[in-house]
Specification:
Helix 1 crosses helix 2 and helix 1 crosses helix 3. The chain is mainly α.
Length: 96
């Protein structure tokens, strides 16, 4: 799903969606904005079961498994960076 689609579905400004899309924590995000974003993404990031599944998916080798994104023209400029950032955040969280 593109940032534009998420912005349209959530009724949030595109600039807000672009910032939220790069975060690895909800610590500084207003609860209402977070809910609008997650609902638009069709992924409930506040649901522990869904997040556990997503985390397990990421641990299995995110870069290898996201073949559909690797074929995207935006892989090098956008998705690769975000995938690595998410994997680093998961690793750091596990160390705590």
């Amino acid at each position: 799903m593109t940032d534009e689609e998420i912005a349209f579905r959530s009724e949030l400004p595109l600039s807000t969606v672009q910032v939220l899309s790069t975060l690895t924590s909800w610590d500084e995000v207003d609860a209402g904005v977070m809910r609008m974003f997650t609902k638009a993404c069709r992924m409930d990031f506040t649901n522990a079961l869904q997040m556990r599944r997503a985390t397990q998916y990421m641990r299995r080798g995110l870069i290898r498994e996201l073949k559909y994104l690797k074929r995207s023209t935006e892989w090098e400029t956008r998705w690769k960076h975000l995938a690595n950032k998410w994997r680093i955040a998961i690793t750091e969280k596990q160390k705590k």
